[in-house]
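Write out the 3D structure for:
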Amino acid sequence: QGQVKIRGIRVIHSGEDGVRIVGGPGSVVDQVEIHDSARDGIHLVDSAGSTIVRSSISEVGRDAIRIDRSDGSVVQRNSIEGVAMGVLPTDSFAAINGEYSSGLLISGNQIRSVAYIGIRFKRSSVVEFNLLEGICKRMGDCGALMAWARLDPKPGFQSRVQRNIIRNVGSDVPEDEIGNAVAAGIYLDDLSSEVEVAQNVIENSPIGVLIHNSTGHTLTGNMVIGSRDCSICLVGGMNEEVVEAMGSNIISGNTLV
């Protein structure tokens, strides 16, 4: 229990996680190189307010960075390449998986060659200045940046997604082998709400921005280039009578090329 500081080490061929910190609030992982971890590159559990910075993570089996019950943590200026590309990717959630924590800052990371989602975020988080290339390469129903709240009863994510660059989203696998082939640059899925999406650039993604069964989002100043299915899609299909599934979305001032 307590703060852990890890700097300047190299971890190769880990049988599970390259680095795992449990119960270490305020911990720091800085300039760590992790290659070929069977499960996660770096896994934080119950470690609120921790920082993962300037680290390099490549060829991992599940998630490159996973943040569980570690609210207020920072993931910044890391390089990630090759996430769940060498195995069946069914257990992989994201290169940076922040679904189980709130108040995250995910900023300035470079993420390339990912089987499934690039960055998964949830409540009161900021996702900004990230570069994502080659995302959703082996699985569908996927987004380079994705929010999903089907199991979260609280309304209002109040997160910001801004000034990210997203290129080359979509699977290398034939559609009949992956089932749901939906792939989007930014995917705001079931019951996510109140996400501000501003000044992002999305290039060569089947769908630029997908709002699916979700409400209260604001899309302004984004540029979507070369989306073959649609640049900005709003799709509803939920049966829950208690949810206003698609209301109050604001879309203005975007450039669609």
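The first strand starts at residue 5 and ends at 7.
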